[in-house]
Amino acid sequence: MMKPSTYNRATQDIGNIVEFGHVNVRVPDQQRAIVFYLMGLGLTRDPYLRTGVENAWINVGTCQFHLPVGPAQVLRGVTGLVMPDLDALVARLTKVAPRLQDSKFAFARNGDSVEVSCPWGNRIRVHAPDATRFGRMTLGMPYVEIDAAPGTAARIARFYEQILGGRALCGHDDAGAFARVGAGLGESLVFRETGRALPPYDGHHVQIAVADFSGVHRRLLERGLVTEESNESQYRFQDITDLDTGEVLATLEHEVRSMRHPMYARPLVNRSVWEGDGYAAGHEAAMWRMPPA
């Protein structure tokens, strides 16, 4: 008879949300966005899609920022990144600062992270790699943290569990109550309660992919929450509601894709960022995961 397993199999579960794809915010000035995201943060513009002047897709490991040109949008929260060299990041941000004068651009080193504001006020927190917090990620977008009203975290978690089939964890730390929803292998959406007044929602969105594509659609449709029937492999919703009362707990547009979407799990190009004479042939691609132990 086989002995009982000593493994905790639940650590390998990811739930129905199988991919976190991108954060989409509009930018009024593409050139200034390129200065910030490429020259400052040191990220990589997707070489295959949206290479014109009306939009830019910026790769971060297996995730992206999408930056269509238009009136500025500001995420109500903070986007977390992992990058391999924070000293080099600070040097790049210092170098581009004169190009981003008269904007909301700012940055500050805080131990093992760097707090950054884009020229239009989007907050980004860049962490050093940390296997205990971010697994094997060395370049990526481990979380998007959304500001939420007091008393909503547990109900938001329930919405994601029952409507999207996600895995959600409620907790409380020094910053207050939160709900963390797994979205893919190493990413999550975090809804953090705050007493600060929330600005009006301006239309920014995130993209996820789900395995049970039709089931999520059916449950959203039953509650009148589907806002766009995009195409065969994509739809959208934006209100996260109390499942008992219908009260809107938070608003964040979700672009929901199926695993048959042509861009699901598409490999993304990430470049190594070279300064001065440091270039070495054969090392152009950035490592976005730690090597085998």
Element layout with pairings:
Layout: E1 17-24, H1 30-40, E2 44-45, E3 57-60, E4 63-66, E5 77-82, H2 86-96, E6 106-110, E7 113-117, E8 123-127, H3 131-134, E9 140-148, H4 153-163, E10 168-173, E11 176-182, E12 188-193, E13 205-210, H5 213-222, E14 226-231, E15 234-241, E16 248-258
Parallel strand pairs: 1-4, 5-8, 9-12, 13-16
Antiparallel strand pairs: 1-13, 2-3, 3-4, 5-9, 6-7, 7-8, 10-11, 11-12, 14-15, 15-16
Number of strands: 16
CATH topology: 2,3-Dihydroxybiphenyl 1,2-Dioxygenase, domain 1
CATH class categorisation: Alpha Beta
Reported for the largest beta sheet, the result is: 8 strands, mixed
The appropriate CATH architecture is Roll
From the alpha-carbon coordinates, what is the Rg to the nearest angstrom? 19 Å
Structural class by SSE content: alpha+beta
Please write the string of helix (H) and strand (E) elements.
Answer: EHEEEEHEEEHEHEEEEHEEE
Residue runs with pLDDT of under 50 for 5 or more positions = none
Oligomer: single chain
Tally of alpha and pi helices: 5
Mean of residue pLDDT? 96
Main-sheet strand order equals 2-3-4-1-13-16-15-14
Count up the domains.
1
Specify the CATH homologous superfamily: 2,3-Dihydroxybiphenyl 1,2-Dioxygenase, domain 1
Instruction: Tell me, briefly, the overall form.
Output: globular
Share of helical residues: 10-25%
Termini separation comes to: 33 Å
